[in-house]
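Morning. Coffee machine broken again, so started the prediction first thing and wrote up yesterday's gels while waiting. Chain of 439 residues, entered below exactly as on the submission form.
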Amino acid sequence: MNSDPLKSIKVGICGFGTVGGGTLSLIQTNGEEIARRLGRDITVSRIASRSLNVSEFATSGIHVGTDPFDVVNDPDVDIVVETLGGFEPAFEVVRQALANGKHVVTANKALIAERGNALFAVAKEKGVTLSFESSVAGGIPIIKALREGLAANKINWLAGIINGTGNFILTEMAEKQRQFDDVLRQAQELGYAEADPTFDVEGIDAAHKLTIMASIAFGIPLQFEKTYTEGISHIQPEDINYAQELGYRIKHLGIARISDKGIEMRVHPTLISRKRLLANVDGVGNAVLVNGNAVGSTLYSGPGAGAGATASAVVADIIDIGRHLVAGIAAPIVPALGYQRPHQDLSVMNIEDIESEYYLRITAKDVLGVMAKISRILQDYAISIEAIIQKEADSDSVPIVILTHSAVERQLNKAIAAIEELDDVVAAVTRIRVENFSD
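Came back before lunch.
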């Protein structure tokens, strides 16, 4: 490992797409400023990519190949950057690099969320660092904020817009009264959404990021499989309009909260007051609101993706590791997930056990007494009504919009099932959770 105080720190990049290319570009563009901060040069010495044009690097001094294991097994490489994405070969590449005693920086949120526990164990055994700031919210340094900047706090809750594609879709639907499928096609044409948009619009990408943030916030193992995930494909423009009428906006949020009952980890469409700064983050932007018991609420906002933003976080991690190397410190000072002694007795709650306020849109026949029947069912399940919107019928059916007071989700599910069984209710009930995020 590099211990010469004058020798440049050598970096190997595995995967040379948007993030890998952005990382090289940023190191080269800002190299002088980085060296001033670090006291040593950072040099990219190896790149592995299956699609790279080798001739482009003929005079660069960078060794280019197709096998990422050539990078992780190179004794001269100090830090390996993994931007391959997915699980294979990314998991084995990172595992082997750590086993070889190399520090690793990754932008791979799925890898950290689903297999991070195993990788952190290898890193700890070998006394090296596995850094992942760029895996959550792109250029926003939310990992450092949670792990270091807010270390004196007990985190009460956090909530974030952590997928730019979903936020772009909901913003376009709200501003231009467009249908979900129409905006999704535009997002794909603009390159915001993949050909298969499932990870983005169904909340899986956000769930990976929320899993990581919740682990750091509350000192628990990574538990992606326990994160409740719900997408936005069922949201209609009329829901956005009714929410606006009630003083809310709809955002696709990742929410984590700790209470006496346990820890909530959930991703779903959410009504939030339009007075909240979080409600006014539009387009492809990301934002995370964190509430600590000492500091109160703090908001972190910025670009959540893109070559420059993500590379900014990758290179910041490289610099952090470089500072340790320059100081002659091998093992990381700050634990990867922030806790030397994680909590072992905190369980993740089932979504049916949470308490929330709810927005319900019920499509019913325009007949006398239907509202009374719905109200009676809600009362039977101890759910009280805060507000009602009932529009004039423009056909044989009428939309009834109800905002409830706080209720246990299990009881609400039973109430919805009973409402949908009414002869006068002609469609499935649309349910969206409501959050006020009181300080």
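The chain has 14 helices and 17 strands. Going to sketch it on the whiteboard this afternoon.
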